[in-house]
Structure formats: C-alpha cells, structure tokens
Amino acid sequence: MKKTAKILSLVLAAAMAAAMTGCSTGAKETAAADTVKAASEAAGAAGKEEKKADGKTAYKVGICQLVQHEALDAATQGFKDALIDAFGEDGVEFDEQNAQGDSNTCSTIINSFVSEDTDLILANATASLQAAQAGTNEIPVLGTAVTEYGVALGISDFNGTVGGNTSGTSDLAPLDEQAAMIKELFPDRKNVGLLYCSAEANSQYQVDTVKEALEKLGYTCKYYAFSDSNDLSTIVTKAAYESDVIYIPTDNTVASNTEIVNNICQPAGIPVVTGEEGICAGCGVATLSISYYDLGVATGKMAAKILTGEADISEMPIEYAPQFTKKYNKTICDALGITVPDDYVAIEESL
After folding, report:
1. Could you tell me the pTM of the whole model?
2. What letter would DSSP give residue 138?
3. Where is the signal peptide (predicted)?
4. Contact 214/186 with Cβ under 8 angstroms?
5. Which of 11, 43, 91, 283 could bond to 261 as cystine, CB 3.0-4.6 Å?
C-alpha cells in the first residue's frame, strides 16, 4: 500500500503539472480533472499489480459475524458462494472471523480488517455493522442479517439508502403478518409475551412493531427483556408463567440458546412463535421466515458489483428478501397438540 500511495503521489504531481502547462483557465481545469482521474486509475491498477506481485488474490474480503448460529452461518455461506461464483476460488480471499456474541470483539475484528486494508467488509448482524461503521468510512461495508438499518445506525430519517461506504441486505419479514400468524394459530389466547435481548436494537424495534399490531388484534402484550444469556432462563421462566403465547423476533442471543427456551416453554405447554426459521427449529411452533442463505447470496452479488466498480455503494439501497414462507416445527407442534393450516411448510421437510 505504501508503494501504491507513492505511485499515486508521483503520478498526480506529474499529471497536474502537465495539465496546467500552456492552457487557458478553463482548459487548465478540464485538463487537470482529466489527468487526476487518469492518475487515480493508474494508481489503482498499480495497486492491483502490486497485489499480484505479492502473490495475493485479486480481492480480500473481511467477514465479521457476530455469533455462530444457523441463520447467520447460512448468510455467510451464501455471501461467500456468490463471490466465488463471480470471481472463482482463486479470485477472492476471505478473512472470516466470529465475535462469539461480543460487540467489543466485533470492534477488534473490524479494526484488524482496516489495518489490513481489506477490499470490502461483510458485517453479519447488527453489532458487526455498528462496529464497521465506527471503524471505517473508506472501506466498503455491506451488512447482512440486519433487520432495520435506520434503527441499527441511528438514522432518524432513513429512506432506504444509508449512503457513504455502507449498504447491505435486511432480514426483516413483515411484522404485521407475523402478528396475524399468532391470531391465525391462537385466536382464543389473550396474553402474548414479547421475549428479546435488550442489547439488540433491532430486537427492540421488532417487538415494538409486533406489539402494536397484536394490540390492534385484541391481545394484551408484555415485554420480557433479558440482558444476555446469563439471565435468559430466569426471564423465559417468568414469561412462560405469565403468557399464553410467546413471540421472539430475529434475536441473535435467543438463536444461540434455543434449547434453554424450549426446555422451559414446551413442558409448560406455552407455544413460541418466532421471527426466523433457525429459532423456530430450536424452540418454536411457527414462523414467517426467509432464506438466510439466499439473503447472503444477494449480499454477495452486491459485493461483486462494488469490487468491480459496476456499482457505487453510496447509491445502493438496502435490499430485502424476495419471499416469505409460513413454516412450522412439526415435533413441537405435535408435542403441544397444535394443528397448523395446510399452507404451512414443515421445517424438517424444507431443510
């Protein structure tokens, strides 16, 4: 990188001098702009040649995944497969790191990507995206498995495009339809417990939205927020005791601890409706879900366009999943004596 920077400085200086010699004022400005552009392109080419000379692949991509669980793993795999499809096995090098659920570790990982001057960063989940935005305003950053970018990044007037060096894909399923699913499956129940991690901004957004929709449908809703996995069992026990149904959004902490939820709710006979398939497979009865693998593929296709210069990330709007599917967990439904409508697909059959 130092060599490339030196090349850029020398070429720019020579280009500006050549452009300003023997020209009128207007011609000088035009010539200067043209030669600066040419110089930048030359420096970029030199940088790529420098990578090849060092034996490096054409593109180096850093992947920061918040935590390991089925949904995020699938998104990462889809992203990698899309880039390999675009550039080949030898055309892209992945530096894939997992923060083990810790936001501070996300920051450490992002800082390492910045110091290595990676060509692009994938931020998988909200905490990873927040760390990436704080860590760099130059390296392109694509988020995935992030529910609402305005909430995640503190953009009050979010219009669908983040701008700057950030874009990505959202895993947001229609929250009003998730509320309608509860009404469809459990029309006679009254109290819905909203279980979520208070440290995840997008989880808060989802339960707030679902609460509003459920109250319009005649349900009484109560929040059950836990701070991390250490107090999850206590809060789930309270929620199961006080609720007729529990709703869980696309919450990464729950996704990594579904066994805790299932071991409490299933014996208590309390059904759990979830925001995504991975959580439903572990502790839920039904979900309106997306394919996280397909979401990752969509993110990878965006990355390919950015890396080749086909698209400007500052102008790329957030992309959403193209379709949603009603799914159910046959094992838990059978255990609780719940019959779902015919248009629900069993999770076991879809994997």
Report:
1. 0.76
2. S
3. 1-27
4. no
5. 283
Alpha-carbon distance of 169 to 144, in angstroms, equals 5
Residues 250 and 297 in one domain: no
Query: What's the Cα-to-Cα distance from 248 to each of 236, 285, 329, rounded to whole Å?
Result: 11, 11, 15
Give residue-wise pLDDT tens across range 12-66: 444 444 444 444 444 444 444 444 334 433 444 444 444 433 445 589 999 999 9
The CATH number given to whatever domain includes residue 300 is 3.40.50.2300
Nearest Cα neighbor of 273 from 165, 143, 181, 141 is 181
Same domain, 285 and 299: no
Domain containing 25: what range? 2-53
Is the torsion defined by CA of 215, 218, 220, 221 positive or negative?
negative
pLDDT tens digit sequence for 91-140: 999 999 999 999 999 999 999 999 999 999 999 999 999 999 999 999 99
CA 139/CA 286 separation, integer angstroms: 39
